[in-house]
Design a protein that fits this description.
The complex is a heterodimer of chains A (179) and B (308).
Chain A: E1 4-9, E2 14-18, H1 24-37, E3 48-55, H2 63-70, H3 74-83, E4 86-91, E5 98-101, E6 116-119, E7 123-127, E8 130-133, E9 138-140, E10 143-147, E11 168-173
Parallel strand pairs in A: 3-11
Antiparallel strand pairs in A: 1-2, 3-10, 4-5, 4-11, 6-9, 7-8, 7-10
Chain B: E1 2-7, E2 13-15, H1 35-44, E3 53-57, E4 59-65, E5 69-75, E6 80-82, E7 85-86, E8 93-95, E9 100-105, E10 111-116, E11 120-121, E12 150-153, E13 175-180, H2 189-197, E14 200-202, E15 210-214, E16 229-230, E17 235-237, E18 245-247, E19 254-255, E20 259-263, H3 268-271, E21 279-284, H4 287-305
């Protein structure tokens, strides 16, 4: 519909933003029909995307902090983080940032007291009971426990990005290969 | 066919009407902070209203034209001159090859638009040419202009007759009109009364991402966190500290603070003109009133297009 210029999906809501010439009445009628006719049983399966991660060391500067906070040794943190299957609920907040669900609550760790000025692209972090991947280098306050070489977001063509809404992610622990 | 930046001003960026259609990839539209003024500036030089131009912030900068051009300044009144001769605000003016345009500090609001017949030509990124400063995308190399930058002027084949605006466009920055937000009822009636009856001051920490307000602390009676959901342009979020933030053109696409209200679309142009230290009040209007004001603003712009 030409009145709708942006769609903001989230966990349990979808916000739409409208063109300046749209009228609320017209858009509301349109959306009522869309919601009425939607087949709620027909959900796309989503792909399974394996994300190779080098955990700890210089790639995961906050691994020790997560280990201290949770009382689990690093091997156990890695095990619990990489055993999960994470649903990409939506991409939001900032450019290409995936919101995952499904982290084991036993490795939840509060955000850093003061955010880093720059976190490298591909960094894997924990913030409270969420985990995520920094798609691009940016400031950030998540506990960084590892890093992937996989580029999850295609800046030039977002539609062809590796990670899309509805995909499921598995983190696979790989060694640093002498890096 | 280019313009050389001799001094870039405080924060000068290439802006058009934004990059829509990519919010579900976490990309907010960006675009002119005062899109109403950009559209008018473009019509003054005969461009399509959505052409890219320079958004000037607080201090304009110095620009040398390497070609003859037809230009206009719209938005807030700054202090411009060409080779030391005053330059009129709000109308199209010829500038000759080799001449220097100096734009001093603002005399009124935060932003002005320097529009050039043919538009400012930068590579298209996704659906727009706007600079998104926070994510370092679009515009000229994804950043505000720097000394020594060269800007190309776009194709003159698609331009039309410039318009002339004789009337004074009055904007009252002391009142910003709002609708109730999605979490409006998280705030009690007495909090609402405080919210719309006392003055807010614009913080110096404001940016194109958000206008931070101070001087009238409010708190939700139902906590400071919601399940993350979409944030609209102009959505007024209230974090735990109690100082509201107006989400602006480079806003995050989703967020977890309750939204007490939304600035009506017709008044977003005012938000783009707020600068640190400005004071204003919010005024609550109905959804219907907000829509009528938006459609009236659109018809005014349509009527301008039919003037020549």
């Amino acid at each position: 519909m030409k009145d709708i210029i942006n769609i903001h999906p989230a966990y349990s809501s979808v916000m739409v933003s409208l063109d300046n010439e749209a009228t609320l009445g017209r858009v509301t009628e349109h959306l009522k029909v869309v919601l009425r006719d939607m087949n709620y049983n027909e959900r796309p399966e989503g792909r399974i995307v394996e994300v190779p991660v080098i955990y700890g060391g210089e790639n995961g500067p906050d691994m020790a902090r997560v280990s201290d906070y949770t009382g689990l040794d690093q091997g156990e943190v890695i095990k619990r983080h990489s055993e999960g299957e994470y649903l990409v609920y939506f991409i939001g907040f900032s450019i290409g940032f995936p919101y995952f669900g499904g982290m084991d609550p036993s490795i939840a760790t509060p955000r850093l007291d003061s955010p880093r000025k720059s976190v490298p692209a591909g960094s894997i972090g924990i913030a409270g009971n969420q985990t995520g991947i920094y798609p691009l280098s940016s400031p950030g306050g998540w506990n960084i426990i590892g890093k992937t070489d996989l580029s999850i977001f295609n800046v030039e063509n977002p539609k062809s990005s590796v990670l899309q809404m509805g995909d499921r992610v598995r983190f696979v622990s790989v060694d640093s290969g002498g890096k | 066919m280019s313009i050389t930046v001799i001094k870039p001003g405080l924060q000068t960026t290439v802006q058009d009407l934004g990059r829509n259609g990519f919010a579900h990839f976490g990309i907010s539209a960006s675009g002119a902070a005062d899109s109403f003024s950009l559209r008018i500036g473009n019509l003054l030089v005969g461009n399509n209203e959505s052409a890219a131009a320079l958004e000037l912030t607080i201090l304009g900068g110095i620009y040398q034209f390497e070609t003859d051009a037809f230009i206009a300044l719209s938005g807030s009144q700054f202090d411009p001159s060409i080779d030391d001769k005053p330059f009129p605000h709000g109308q199209g003016v010829f500038i000759r090859k080799g001449q220097i345009l100096t734009i001093g500090p603002t005399l009124t609001g935060a932003r002005a638009y320097l529009c050039v017949r043919g538009g400012v030509d930068v590579p298209q990124y996704l659906s727009g040419k706007s600079t998104h400063v926070m994510s370092k995308m679009g515009g000229l190399n994804g950043r505000p202009l720097q000394k020594g930058d060269t800007l190309n002027i776009g194709n003159l084949s698609s331009v039309s007759q410039p318009i002339i605006i004789k009337e004074k466009l009055h904007v009252d920055l002391s009142i910003i009109r709002i609708n109730r937000g999605l979490q409006s009822d998280w705030f009690s009636e007495s909090t609402w009364t405080k919210f719309i009856s006392k003055l807010y001051t614009v913080s110096d920490l404001s940016s194109r991402m958000g206008i931070r307000l101070k001087g009238n602390n409010i708190n939700s009676e139902r906590g400071n966190e919601i399940l993350t959901e979409g944030i609209p342009l102009g959505g007024i979020q209230v974090p735990g500290g109690g100082d509201p933030i107006i989400s602006f053109v480079e806003h995050q696409t989703t967020g977890g603070y309750p939204k007490i209200a939304n600035v009506i679309t017709a008044d977003l142009c005012k938000v783009g003109q707020l600068k640190g230290g400005d004071e204003f009040k919010f005024e609550l209007v109905s959804i219907e009133e907000g829509e009528a004001l938006r459609l009236a603003q659109e018809s005014y712009i349509q009527s301008l297009k039919n003037r020549h």
